[in-house]
Amino acid sequence: MALTTRFCSGPVRRREFLSAGMLGAGGLCLPDLFRLQASAADAGKPIDQETSVIFVWLPGGPPHMDMYDMKPNAAAEYRGAFHPIPTTVSGIDVCELMPRHAAMADRYSVVRSVAHTFADHGGGHKRMMTGRVPLTPVDTVNDAPATGSIVAKCRERQNNGIPNYVSLNPGGRTGDVFAQGAAYLGQSYLPFTVEGDPTTPNFVVPNISPLESVGKRVGDRMSLLGSLDRIERQIDASRLMESMDRYQQRAVSMLTSDRAKKAFDLSLESDATRDRYGRHCWGQRALMARRLVEAGVNFVTVIMENPYQSGVPQLKQGVYNWDSHAVNCHIWDDLKVRLPIYDQAVTALIDDIQQRGMNRRTLILITGEFGRTPRMESSVGSQTGVMQPGRDHWPQAMSFIMAGAVNTGLVVGSTNSKGEHPADRPLTPNDLWATVYRHLGIDHSDSFPDHRGRPMPILPFGEPISELLRG
Question: How far apart are CA 417 and CA 401, in angstroms?
């Protein structure tokens, strides 16, 4: 069901209009992220405000058997075209197209035994993003809050002069793309969304623009707000208006200070660092994520979807996201482009977090919504018109990696000889998120009320993955 909650009726309605228009139309403005939080229920238990998460999302479903769970001894119709290569850690082999992963396998752990039951992209997105079994198996409009929104709610009182929850997103509406919606928590817990390719000359972070370009508009509206205050405070017995003022001021303070602008400004990084991540949208988004958590952001989602940008020519037999059906792409040709870019961006992020001493407080999680069919398929490509190989959706088995604030150099779980289902240590998306919440100091048994006032636990089930937990 689409989110239809109304916010702040009554005497606050005019102020809402002003704050919504404060910094322009389109997208979620910073005041939208902060308003209403003063009247929200307290999260409860004290938590460690210094910990953070970088969540790299691979929409479409990355092929587990062509990346982190290769089966070289399986029949040809299962094992695929690429070979595994040994890494610095015994037991961890990765695809030959990811040599940087091979050189630093001691800095991440692979989990190979996650499974769920939602084979549609929409259902898979919701199942993975929320840790809940969605009410419907299709579409990406959440009926439960995404994990990032839960974190934003639990840390709503934190004020580092920068949003607590940011999504580096290729574009589109925040709430109903990739199932990042806040559901019953409300729109003030949606991420601050940064769209576009950071490598382009005209890249701009919305609402974090030079002071001279917004100062006059901010000043005019704040002056008008002050005039309204003198009238409305006389009738605002609930003092909600004063509470709203604090959040409005917090948004203005962020926009007129250097902290947020510097956090998003990649030009402050050396050429060597930017080259290390790769002068590509994925690499520069990963670098921006590191800068953001370093500046105090609690949860950053990095969308790595389309590799054919930043000067990379579009393959006729390639595909926009990781959805490698034969009808969509020639999976081997597409991966020859996609995996080297991914390999560079991800390993640079993992290595940089470690070198900067951030690996005790920052957890990196990389996953998509499901794996791909172990058995290959062939079909006529919609773009090429010729027969080509691919893999279909497969939630029965998938792999993900974690790095940073977890035990690394490990393989957790396994699949059977054909990569079809977990053979040992079967896990669910809830165990993944229970691990994340434990790192953040959030009790996943805590609850928030839904639209009907019913208490909804953060996770209805799941336990942290013990092998990954640091003592």
Answer: 20
Residue 51 and residue 59: Cα distance in Å, rounded? 25
Main-chain phi, psi angles of 398, to 5 degrees = -160, 160
Q: Which has the closest alpha carbon to 264: 217, 196, 345, 215? A: 196
What are the structural domains, with CATH classification, of the chain? Answer: 11-40+202-270 (no CATH), 51-199+279-468 (3.40.720.10)
The pLDDT tens digits for 52-110 are: 999 999 999 999 999 999 999 999 999 999 999 999 999 999 999 999 999 999 999 99
pLDDT tens-digit readout, 138-154 = 999 999 999 999 999 99
- Secondary structure class of 379 (helix, strand, coil): strand
Q: Which of 404, 403, 298, 296 is nearest to 358 (CA)?
A: 404
User: Do the Cβ atoms of 294 and 313 come closer than 8 Å?
Assistant: no
Can you tell me whether residue 164 is helix, strand or coil? coil
Beta carbons within 8 Å of 55's beta carbon, 6+ residues apart? 147, 148, 299, 300, 301, 302, 365
Q: For residue 192, what are the β-bridge partners?
A: 166
